[in-house]
Design a protein that fits this description.
Blueprint: H1 6-21, E1 26-32, E2 46-52, H2 58-72, E3 75-81, E4 86-91, E5 96-103, E6 114-119, H3 124-139, H4 148-158, H5 160-172, H6 175-197, H7 212-220, H8 228-249, H9 258-268
Parallel strand pairs: 2-5
Antiparallel strand pairs: 1-2, 1-6, 3-4, 4-5
Helix pairs in contact: 4-6, 5-6, 5-8, 5-9, 6-8, 7-8, 8-9
Length: about 270
């Protein structure tokens, strides 16, 4: 079987929508992710949120959808996580279909891209818009609850430690450990930027949407080879990128400042 095509993906989307509309327990289907805005490219998968009437019908509805998809298309992998209200399908043409289930009283926009494909009750899109505005206000676009001040204080307060550890590792010639420590610091930097830009950074989902100059600064912090010289060069770029972010947006939470980190690096290396 060959890889799925754009036409095949569209046909599967239309089939799923028709399948869902025949079930009275399903009140709405929402296309989420890149598909809701026209798909990123020909490799994008299908992500749906199925809105049902109540919890009692969750398993029955999930089984209904599973039976329908199995009759329509060969499946090479399937996972059903009832406790999470989630199904994952891999069809034999390698099209991935992720389906989340939620009751009508819990409709909530976890990310900023969706398209309500049908809605029996007429309120779903409004609920999505309201919840997304609330998410931006409370969690800066994250898919989980975030106390912004606590997060900034934690990240700004701990980021110096992997920088110090990376410095020592480079001095000892432990380059893979140094890479790991630098990755930890870089991930904190990316989390900070994600909060500021209201972008999701889990698994680097929206990192490519950071401003170009910020991506260039992050790129410079990636060592090009495992040598003391190149590792030190990358570490210094990482320090600059980190403290540019900290000093501009959460200066009050800094514990070890830029000058002190650079001084430590100069002593060790």
């Amino acid at each position: 079987m060959s890889l799925f095509t754009i036409a095949g993906r569209k046909e599967m989307k239309n089939f799923f929508l028709q399948l869902a509309q025949y079930n009275d327990d399903i009140l709405s289907v929402i296309l989420v992710g890149s598909g809701s805005v026209g798909f990123t490219d020909e490799l994008s998968d299908l992500d749906f949120c199925v809105v049902i009437n109540n919890d009692e019908n969750l398993e029955k509805t999930m089984n209904y959808i599973q039976d329908g998809i199995r009759k329509h298309s060969p499946i090479i992998a399937f996972q059903q996580m009832l406790h999470r209200g989630l199904q994952v399908y891999i069809l034999d043409n390698y099209l991935e279909i992720d389906i989340g289930y939620v009751t009508i009283d819990r409709v909530y926009a976890r990310r900023g891209r969706w398209n309500v494909l049908f809605d029996r009750v007429g309120t779903v899109n409004n609920d999505m818009e309201k919840s997304w505005k609330q998410n931006l206000n409370d969690n800066r676009g994250k898919t989980f609850s975030v106390n912004i001040d606590e997060a900034l204080a934690e990240y700004a307060g701990e980021i110096w430690h992997p920088l110090f550890c990376a410095t020592v590792a480079i001095r000892r010639g432990e380059f893979w450990r140094a890479i790991g420590e630098m990755d930890m610091a870089r991930n904190i930097l990316i989390e900070l930027k994600g909060l500021r830009h209201s972008l999701e950074t889990k698994r680097y989902r929206d990192v490519d949407r950071f401003p170009a100059d910020e991506l260039v600064a992050i790129h410079k912090s990636m060592p090009t080879c495992l040598s003391s010289e190149k590792m030190t060069e990358a570490l210094c770029h990482l320090v600059e990128a980190i403290y540019d972010e900290l000093e501009a947006h959460c200066k009050k939470y800094i514990i070890i400042d830029r000058k002190q980190v650079k001084e430590y690096i100069s002593y060790i290396l």
